[in-house]
Design a protein that fits this description.
The protein is an alpha/beta fold. Helices cover 33% and strands 18% of the residues. Strand 2 and strand 3 form a beta hairpin. Helix 3 packs across helix 4 and helix 4 crosses helix 5. The protein is globular and about 50 Å long.
Amino acid sequence: ETLRYLLRRRAKLVFLHGALHLYPRDAAVEKAHSVRSETLVDQLRQNLGTERWPLLVAEGKGADKERHIAASPYLLRGLSRLAAPGPTVVFGCSLSDADAHIRRALVKSARRHPIYVGVFRGQGPVRALRAEAEAQGVSCDIVPFDARTLPVWKA
């Protein structure tokens, strides 16, 4: 087999809605890695051709996303990590109504620690998170930051 996977039990970075390079395997997740002879896109095409689907929640209403997350130990663990104590950074998520499950989990952790929210345009994600906190009766520190200022964009 030319595909290379690395089985991980713990991760510091969690893809809350999965990703194109993650594949479910029993209660764990395999992560596809680029190899010299094959790119990740090549591997994705090969896997789709054999009906091996990535772990990905890309569309749907909030209830649909929550059902998909509940069926995956990896995704469920990622969601529960949001409610764990400690500062949290949200990057690349609109926190729209379809992501209400993420807002609820974030507000649980925000009782003791700040939430840093990356914003590209406007304050929509910040407003959504503040509204969730107010609805839950929680006072929390929500700190917006300009996502374009991260050094990763300059690499």
